[in-house]
Design a protein that fits this description.
This protein is about 55% helix and about 5% strand. The longest helix is centred in the middle third of the chain and has 24 residues. This is Tyrosine recombinase XerS.
Amino acid sequence: MSVTKQRDALQLLQSISAYPWYVEKFIEHKKAKKNSPSTLLGYLRDFSFFFRWMMTEGLTAAADIREIPLSDLNELKKETVESYILYLQESHLYERSAVLTNPTKSSKKEYSDRTISRKISSLKSLFHYLSALAEDEHGESYLTRNVLAKIEVETTELTPLARAHAIRAKILIDDEIYQFVDFVYNGYLSHCHTTKKQQYHLQNRDRDTAIVAMILSGGFRVSEIVSLNLSDIVLEKNQLKMVRKGKKEDAPFFSDWGKEFLGRYLQTREKYRPSTQEDAVFLAVSPANPHGHRIEVRSVQKLVKKYAKAFGIPDLSVHKLRHSFATQFLRLNPDPHQLQAQLGHSKIETTMQYAHVLEDALSKAVNRTT
């Protein structure tokens, strides 16, 4: 199990006691289905939002989430759930203060249709389990009616070309890859308008540049990069040993270009003052823990967004760096099966989505036709 999954599994264990017993049963059911701890935590967050909304709307007399009885779910009406969907669509207008203990800046942002669909899908999964799959000691379903079965989740199916067009503006192509990495190391300093920010950037730019360059040089997932240990690096072969999705052991490659940035960082790694037992490759420090410890996934996501916004591509995310590598790979090496092996995809269909991102090849083919 990766470090990220271990942390999420621990958080799941610590969080589940705050939910009703029937949610715990649902989580156990999903665990048996081999759902990842991250996925299960996502379910809990969606349930928490809905349960808090029920409490603020007076749909339960419970004073705490874990005390909400099954009977309250059984009595929900279709119109009530539709009201919840409307609330999801408009909750940013109220900064979601009614259901969030500590509203953040993101609470002012409108939920996307995709996010709303996911939150409703989570509830549909819970209600389906309680009404159709689970049973009490008498063999009866926990819920006698499933109101969520009457709610349709609208999903817009995109063609590969439409999906490609949406991705294109959010990834790096050709020279943009090198320009972005150079910006992380050299260009971002001009965006640091205080001495404190300048010092922070100079302290971490070797690490940040190496993380970005490694993802762009091998198409790795952020969780795979964060979970790397020093013993996982095979420098002479440009390989990384890792456990990928589905608990599959793998040894994908990275390029010589990425290797340069990794080597530069490894020479400066000791400045984070890690303990002798710390084997994590990429380190971070904090006021609470001044000795170098494994950087977190969320920290990498935030630093990539920070650099991307300053670079002028605000929609670029750490996962889009993986998209960037995959797109560039297929452009220069038109062999999706090789890319499938490098990315660790189980199905070739997943890999083929990148074949449509660059429209120039298709455009030329159309022109050659007539």
